[in-house]
Design brief:
Chain A is α/β, with parallel strands linked by helices. Chain A has 26 helices and 20 strands.
Amino acid sequence: MIESLLFMLILGGACGSILSLASKIFYVYEDPRIAQVEYFLAGANCGGCGFTGCSAAAVAVVDGKAKPTVCVISDMETAANVAEVMGMEVGAAEPLLSKNECSGGTRADDRYTYQGAPSCRAAEALLGGRKVCTIGCLGYGDCVKSCIFDAIHMGPDGFPVADEAKCVGCGACETACPKGIVHVRTMSERLLHFNQEDDALAPCQQTCPAEIDIPKYIAQVRDGDYAGAVNTIRERNPLLLSCGRVCPHPCEDYCRRGIEDEAVSINQLKRFAADYEMHSGERLPIPCAVPTGKKVAVVGGGPAGLSCAYFLRRLGHDVTILDAMPKLGGMIRYGIPEYRLPKEVLQWEIDGILNLGIDYRSNATLGADFTTASLREEGFDAVFLGVGAWNDYTLRAEGEDLNGCYTGIDFLTRFARHQQGDSDEDAIPIGKKCVVIGGGNTAIDCVRTLVRLGAEEVSLVYRRTRKEMPANDVEIEAADHEGVKFHFLAAPVRVIGDENDQVTHFEFQKCELGEPDASGRRRPVPIEGSETLMEIDMLVTAIGQGPDVSFIEKEDAIQNLQTTRWNTIDADPEILQSSVPYIFTAGDSYTGASLVVEAIGGGRRAARAIHMYLSEEELVPVPKSLQKKHIPESLFESVNGVVQKKRAEMPEMDVAERIQSFEEADLVLEESDALAEANRCLGCCRICYNKDKEAA
Amino acid sequence: MGDIIVLVVSCILINNILLAQYLGNCPFLGTSKKMETAVGMSFAVVFVLVMAGIITWVVNTFVLVKFGLEFLRTIAFILVIASLVQFVEMFLKKSIPALYAGLGIFLPLITTNCAVMGVCLLNVNEEYTFSQSLISSFAYAIGFGLALILFAGIREKVLLARVPKPLQDTAIGLVAAGVLSMAFFAFKGMV
């Protein structure tokens, strides 16, 4: 006994002293971070990460060959600790999380009775499963069985739900799913995902230019998870407060509930969630990826630029926004009036984006204060041009430059700058009898602004009828309520002034509708001899606007930047890269005057391309890209079992009160109304939907 | 001379440490996904096994047997082999960085691997002399390398084949290992 103890003591001591001596003699400097990283790794040497043991993984992390999340059996805390050793922000580590795209589960009909083994894989072998739906969940839970961390469960609606707290991102569920609807992705991968033909997408989500996961955020509102809804929207749209107020919601036109009942008020629910965050007094944290050290200059701080900057920042790039105006926001600050989108709200939203660590320079005009060449010299690796469409089209009619004549965007911008106190100009004198020409949202914004500025009589002149007006219906209606006089089928002929060049009359011709033109709307044909004079003292023409691309001429380096005949910057629609490789574009400067939400979606698409450009990858289009096209099978023509329930009315301020001031006219839904509205969503996907469970 | 050839053949083929004795399954499955890794691992095993064979023979003959402490053999071997590998690792890192870069990461993996331990204990059980121990350790290591490299080649081919999902990766690896093992059974009775 004593002998053996003694022997082991001596042997152990000898080995120990030899080793400690050897460690001194054979000391080789190695990065101390390797030992620190290894300390935090699991130490199981399981090889699950693909490296030969934990020390090899630690070396790979320090060499930048592996991410802090390399260890598949550790939790988020480990990843955060490792990230901290590596000098990355805590929380910057990108966790892989499992998400299930199908929320249908048992909803779709059966094609045949399946009595085989209760396994998705077995079921899938028989004609792709018993479900009518070709992409949806089969519901046998192969993913649940595959998860060794108990992080994915069968939810009550027959589809698997992943538990983010337990998920380690090992990818077993993704491998196990024969339908490919369970995805394990990092945040960056999710931010860079665009709608694809084989995704599980509801018709509304296919329509949304920003591709927001609408059914998901509505379900989150329904379940009272307002913060979750905000995060869902933010994965696609950083300007949810603004969009919740001004978006003409093309998604609602494709709402399947709209076939049998009224469409779900999708945008009001977005505004409800967005306002919830603003009023909660606390900003929800927005994670960003590990810094890449690449610099991008975003020219133009409008919705496209803000969106592009936001997504690039979240992907880890260093972003600087340059804007010609004193404040950021572009057209949504200077074009959209205060009563539709209060500047305070907009500023709160922009601050949230800038808080991610985005620099900005205001009063910096491209071509005057800086050029793309000077940006390249400053070390910017790529440039995003989101300069918008600020050039008003003119009538090309006699007398339109008389005193008292203005153009739409110019008028709105000058007024907005004066109202915000960021210009030295005097206020625009407001006439008594004002006429606005045009039928778009800018025209409506002009008339409603003029009403609020105390013009006695405000008329809107449009050459087609109300049905053809491109402006949002609610806006037209609100203008109507506010006492605007509409003159339809009236084409402007000339503007007449007095000896002081002050406008006095406006002449127009009556029209009738003829054959449809390229836009599908019927072309107005003037009736000869129907000229009418109208007495006015102020005229605003808001007949459309295009981008100002005069900066191209001011710089030699970008002489070969291609533009289209509409003065927009020419680019590939998928990649949004211009003819100058480091210049990308989106928003109005690419599409021509369009929707805010279109610019936001474009900004993200450009961010994807810039990200690939900066990562020195080949710029490839989104595979099976959908880009607002619809999947035919998803537009089912009837929905059964829908119980008629009224759509939530938009609460608005009383007309008499609202035309006295620029206070916000449209109000946010009450919580109870929002919950009721969220319950109206059928949660559609490719071919299935939720029937209303009970009669209301 | 004939004895030596018999010993070598029996260690490499008939009593192949991986496929006939089923020792060292963890590195067999863990490092056989890529040919490059398998080759690295094989060299590391040759290196460590020969070193371990020598040192354990010395420890056994001059310490354990001499003091009548044979019952401590297993634990003493573990300690000695582990220290040896650590020592060699440090030595290589400092003196022969190129060799360390080639073997380095595999060395700690086989520190107290059952194949290494098994060979050392087998050597003692068979009451081999020093030179026999040296030869058998080397031959076992060659057998290990042979099996591992063969197997890595098979697994690289399997990657290209259509394997039913439930059988993918380790599962099909084990099936292939079983078949390979049966092939090695054909050597039984050769000597």
